Structures
1.
Amino acid sequence: RPAGQTWMSVGESAAKALAEWIVELEKNSSLSGVVSGLEVINEPGLGFEGMAEPIRRYHDSVVPAVQQIFREAKLAVNTTVNFISPNDGEMGSWLKSRVDANQFDGSALLVDFHDYYNWDGPLSFAQVRQKICSTTATSCGWSQYLQAGLSVVVGEWADAIDNNKPPTDNIDDPAVRKNLASLFADQVSMFESTAGTTGHYYWAMRMGSGWDPRPGAAASGHQINGTAWNLSLKSYGDRTWNLGELARVGAVKSVGGLNTTGVCKCDGCSKS
């Protein structure tokens, strides 16, 4: 950072510069409408206690500035916000207070929620399924934002459970693949059946696939032999994070191929 600048001001400058760049993209007809949102910060304060106040202060500065840039350019681009434990408590009510005071434009505000079961402890597929199937719009992890009248996108989720431990991570086992297919469908059914939830994105398409983008002799920025976007390194122990590989081995179906009719109600979804 330049001398005399705080990290807060660096972040503010970066967010506004990105918003202005998105405005410039709109001038190119082939790129117009491509960007639907700008997330002003990702997982702020993850793993650090007592950061709610500076996180709120950052948003108080950045959200109105970014929204003004898009408003003046007449662009329908969402300003996206993300909060994560241990600094996400009561952020829904805090956002609502800002919207009610006309400091944030609620019509162009989107909350990005990251929803994982992997770190909930040593849970079996049956136990995770029970948690998902008993979840409602008032008990889901992002309920505080829905209750505040805000729109939510589940910007990160995955099929990984039990801290990436075997046997639940062994996608070469047909029984595990069947359980993963059912777990995948259960989660999709939850997201798509919860009013106010606008979409969801799996993390990630090619996790652990063997591509190392770093320059230099150690990595050389190439795909390692025997791997691909949907084929992880054999030594990689977290293959459930690679959506491409799950699809390749038949552990999941495309979201468009899931016939979800409600929470944990999906016709034929457990079949690989």
Note: The CA atoms of residues 116 and 157 lie 5 Å apart.
2.
Amino acid sequence: WRFARWELHELILLDGGTYLLSVAIISLIRYIPGDYITKAAGSSIERIRNGFRYVRERPSLMVFGLASFMIFMVFLVFMQGVMAVYISNYLNYPFEEGAPVIAGFKALYSLGAIVTGYLGISLARAMANTNLISQVIGLLFLSALLFALLTISHSATVLFACGFHIGIAKSGARLHRNTYLVR
């Protein structure tokens, strides 16, 4: 695929348009406040101390929180530090031809994240009998397998397929991780 080069003002307009679209979609979501939430008493410093004390008393929660965050750190390093080198040196795309590959990966990653968002409720109901921690571990394991597959494949098609599935795994892990942490 070939796309004409966009001017900077067109990119900024597209970026701003996606924010407006997000605001429009989010404004359609009905908010129903829960009766079960109570605000902690005390100053901000006291509440921060209580939070640290809570986590210190539950070291497994701290380990889970940090370990389950690794998928986001690995993906950030991959996208910001490794992706361009991976495409030019490992997939052997010249620098000028690598941009569409990166864009395709990001588009498919985003599509995977969107699919997870739409299917999140259905998946949560279908997997209700399984432990949230097991689900997060499974998604982290899937992500590790996908990154391992990228190390042995020299195909842009595999990169695109992995991008879609990494989008699903990363978004699903975030969904389940945050659900577990706020329970």
Note: The chain has a mean pLDDT of 85.
3.
Amino acid sequence: MNQKTVLKICIADFWDGLTQRELDFFLSPLRDEYVLIEDEKEPDLLIYSCFGDRHLQYSNCKRLFVCGENVVPDFNACDYSISTLRVQFEDRNFFLPWGLFHNHLLSSAPSILPTSNPLDRKFCSFIYSQDTLGEGAKLRRIFCEQLMQYKHVDCPGKVLHNLDSPLLSSRHDANNWHESKVCFMSNYKFNIAFENSDAHGYITEKLVDCYMANTIPIYWGSRGDVAPFPKESMICAQDYDSLDNLINRIIEIDENNNLYMQILNANPFRSNIVNRYNELLSNMRSFLKFLVKEDSVSSHSMWSDSVRCGIYKRNLDSIRNSFLGKAFNYTKKLLR
């Protein structure tokens, strides 16, 4: 049996509370062929995210940027990326729909909460903690207020709060919050699922949670391109030229039981999403193995150039001190 090669790795600048299970999602494919050893001084591979600047200390190694936020990979700074955005740059980016990673790839195959009579449920839910940071955050509040002119929408979050629910755990209770949110949403025919911002491929758990809860998502995001999720399983807000027309479509579906069930039954977790998972996992494993074996790429020498590194650091400081940077940090605190 061939002895495995040692691969020295360093993990930097990830989100607070990164779990070993989350980290193993990216490391386990490499363990097939390598013995992984953490080395913060001279790693062969640096895996970093967008929540810090410790990655700036490393130059003579391969650099993999992993990010689930709406942040475009900077290929002057990284050699490869696993991104929630549909970025095409040679063979250096792997697109990972973050909603799948966040909710399911860390646990078991996706499942749908059973509903005895999906038609005999409350109208719609809206669960948000902020309505100022991002175009979608502002738009979803306006939309919810207009939709309530048709029927009442239950809003147990901070935004438009009109309901206290014992079903929902505290946002600070990370272990139970997600499960309680999905259980709460399962009591409604619809859920308003607007992303904070609109970027091609940026699809978070907001959409996937609706599928788990067996409710129809009223979705806004990813510039209306929702693949790999089927558009027939949702009401895609960007398919309508006005909020009035969007609301008219919701009313039509709400008042037509056959039409409602047709959309509900298109939930991708009922059928082929597990096969898509397997394909996604297989492709990501191949991508990770490829980037480790690939010879050094041009950005190594570019990054080691002190002038380029200095410019990058100054730009990073400028972004952090800007209104956008401060807003991003504030959002991180809200979500903790």
Note: The radius of gyration is 22 Å.
